[in-house]
Amino acid sequence: MKVRKFIRFHNNPLFSIIILTRNGLNLTKLCIESILKNTEPNYELIFIDNASNDGTVQYLKNVKNSLIITNKENKGFSGGCNQGLKIASGKFIVLLNNDTIVPREWLKKMKDWLEKDPSIGIVGPRSNMVLPDQAISPHLYKAKTKKQIEQFAAEWSEKWRQTGYEVKRISGFCMVFRKELIEKIGGLDQRFFPGNSEDTDFCIRTRISGKKLWVANDVFIHHYGNRTFKLNNENYPHLFIENQKKLLNKWKINSLNEIDHLIIRETPFDYSKHYISL
């Protein structure tokens, strides 16, 4: 593992945005361009590269206000995120997939929910490719170009301004939470390699700790979805099934429909049992 140091624009950044990459340079460029364009400059970017060979690392070295960890082998989503969490210095942590396009004020609006309601543990956005409780109806979303995506996101945000709702799970493609949450419940469980179900497990432990999960209805983030798996020729359906089996086995449940019951069963949060070291 190699870490490239950087000079922080802010000694105390408000946000630490952690982005994993494993090839997919064109998508990563779109994501970073949208962040630089649509995010107030009170953040640090932390890139974790899992052995890309398509020029991604060379590109990331030129991104301002960023820190890059380069892995010689694929550490998976959980392993990479945990590396980023160890060095994050922001008050708020953002886990963001590299196959996304973010709109204006995306972070401010999600942060506002965390500050408005201390009982909220994690905030996520609406999207086109996401868990059902966060997904918009397919017939509503026809955007194809970056301009169309930005226009849709702006119109959606205005229509649903300052509205949100509680859910049972938040998709890991975009999560915003206070750094204190990591101090309370730990990081992502690396048994779910290379990815899938680690976000559900993180949500379960968040809820056991007494915090709720919230969707910022006024934030729409475009998500291409599962591109890293496809670009690296990984069998996504197989990984999905196998890691969900691991999740059910870990929590001793037969289906995801039993999550509410396991939350009651496992509460209060037991550090020796539920905490995941980074």
From TrEMBL:
Signal peptide residue numbers: none
Similarity annotation: Belongs to the glycosyltransferase 2 family.
Keywords recorded for this protein, A-Z: Glycosyltransferase, Transferase
Cited SUPFAM superfamilies: Nucleotide-diphospho-sugar transferases
Keyword Transferase listed: yes
Pathway given in the UniProt record: Cell wall biogenesis; cell wall polysaccharide biosynthesis
Record protein name field: Glycosyltransferase family 2 protein
Highest taxon listed in the record's lineage: Bacteria
Molecular function GO terms recorded: glycosyltransferase activity
A Pfam family this chain is assigned to: Glycos_transf_2
Domain annotation Glycosyltransferase 2-like: ranges: 16-186
Organism, scientific name: Metabacillus arenae
PANTHER family recorded: GALACTOFURANOSYLTRANSFERASE GLFT2, RHAMNOSYLTRANSFERASE WBBL
